[in-house]
Amino acid sequence: MKFFLDTADLDEIKEAASWGALAGVTTNPTLYSRIGGKLDDFHNHIARICEIVDGPVSAESVAMTRDEIIRDGRELAKIAPNVVVKIPTMVEGLAACRALSDEGIRVNMTLCFSVPQAILAARAGARYISPFVGRFDDISEDGLSQLGDVVTAIGNYDYSESTANGEQVEIIAASIRSANHVTQSALMGADIATVPFNVLKKMVQHPLTDRGLESFLKDWEKVANA
Ligand code: E4P
To answer: Ligand 1, from 107, 112, 132: best to mutate by most atoms within 8 Å of Cβ?
Structure first.
């Protein structure tokens, strides 16, 4: 499984990248607004993220018609070679995905909540599909089981002929709220988990690691003083 960081915060991205396990970044309009992002600085901000991270960096279009999304997508793709255009799973989004993918531009279909939506996205040439886990949990439904269904359904077929460059579609477990979400997503075979920085920090922690380290350090002190 690969890890993307789900944030627009440059300090978080730099810190996570320094850990050596970061494969990419996903942003969305909410995450950009959370860092006080300005409309006219959006492209520059995505460029700054791409300077830190070599892997895929998802930048979302907020346009609502296919022509506008395609226009947006072409502009976003010009920012850096690793930009992935993030598009909501809706009719206009599917049409734009097909057009952009045919031009060799990678697309991440977001706000995906069902197997039929995921299959349509894969057929429309999506390079990444992002089923949301936590938002199902928010409405008292089982987000992990929905994710598992998408992973299985997409894995049953080969969609590589749908993308312009013949790449395999990858499933990004999104809207991740806990380290357990990551564990379960990996067990289900999701290709990628995009995690907020607070979850990434929790992933590295274990009380037995802390306890073990404490006793090793104490015993080493005995060795040093012997
Ligand atoms: C995915 O790419 C989205 O940016 C993100 O995972 C949404 O998470 P949320 O439901 O916590 O807002």
So the answer is: 132
Give the amino acid at 198: N
- Beta strands per DSSP E along 46-186: 57-60, 83-88, 107-112, 128-131, 170-173
Ligand 1 within 6 A of CB of 146: no
- Active site annotation includes 78: no
Give me 114's structure tokens: 């069902």
C-alpha torsion sign, points 74, 80, 84, 86: negative
Q: Which two tokens stand for residue 49?
A: 């993220």
Determine whether the shortest distance from the Cβ of 194 to ligand 1 is under 6 A. Answer: yes
**Ligand 1 atom index nearest CA of 31:** 4
Query: 152-162 pLDDT, tens per residue?
Result: 999 999 999 99
| pTM value > 0.85 | yes
Confidence bin at 164 (pLDDT 50/70/90): confident
Q: What share of the chain is helix, strand, coil (3-state, %, to 5)?
A: 55, 20, 30
Residue with tokens 């995690």: 195
59 lines ligand 1 (CB under 6 A): no
Q: Phi, psi (5° rounding) for residue 130?
A: -115, 90
Ligand 1 centroid–CA 132 distance in Å is 7
Tokens 């938002």 -> residue: 135
- Residues 103 and 35: their CA atoms lie apart, in Å, by 32
